[in-house]
Specification:
The protein has 169 residues and is mainly α. The chain has six helices and four strands. It folds into two domains: 90 residues, Orthogonal Bundle (Arc Repressor Mutant, subunit A), CATH 1.10.10.10; 31 residues. The protein starts with 9 loop residues before the first helix and ends with a helix.
């Protein structure tokens, strides 16, 4: 059996596997954002996306897709963020099913107060290690990772469908 099928990409694949597993392990842990607000990684990412894409008019289903979160998880995160007063939901007149999300002033302030801490604690060393790469290399790697994510999502969706079919038999 050929165990070297990854070739020169083995180290990169192993780093991705480790990243995914560590991220999954910590994704459900809630961290204190303010005295009365506790968010896990997915909830924070949803808030961050809404704030960073306020002018996009992206609907909830599109946001969940971009973030790679199941619609149900995304909806739960939005409900929690709304309950904290960080996000508001709006419906369009033309299609009441489409829900737009906007950050509140409180949401923007909470984000501003916290992201600099996240930058220094989590991302500073990561960004520093990428400083040697030119913008084109970073763009190409990002595109490769997004293409891989698409394949992983399609595979996951197929496996979920097969599992549901087995449960129904």
């Amino acid at each position: 059996m050929d165990v070297n099928w990854m070739g020169r990409y083995r180290t990169l694949v192993m780093a991705l596997v480790q990243h995914c597993n560590i991220s999954a392990r910590g994704s459900g842990i809630k961290d204190r954002v303010t005295d009365d607000i506790w968010l896990n990684a997915h909830e924070w990412q949803v808030l961050e996306y809404i704030i960073e894409h306020t002018k996009d008019d992206a609907y909830m289903n599109r946001m969940s897709e971009v973030l790679g979160l199941p619609q149900s998880s995304f909806s739960r995160s939005v409900s929690l963020l709304s309950s904290y007063g960080l996000v508001e939901k709006y419906q369009t007149e033309s299609n009441r099913k489409n829900v737009l999300l906007r950050p509140t002033e409180k949401g923007i302030q909470v984000y501003k107060d916290k992201y600099s801490q996240l930058d220094s604690e989590l991302f500073a060393d990561f960004f520093k290690s990428l400083d040697g790469f030119d913008d084109e290399t970073i763009k190409r790697f990002s595109e490769a990772l997004l293409a891989f994510n698409k394949v992983l999502k399609e595979d996951s969706d197929k496996r979920n469908e097969r599992a549901k079919a087995r449960e129904n038999n």
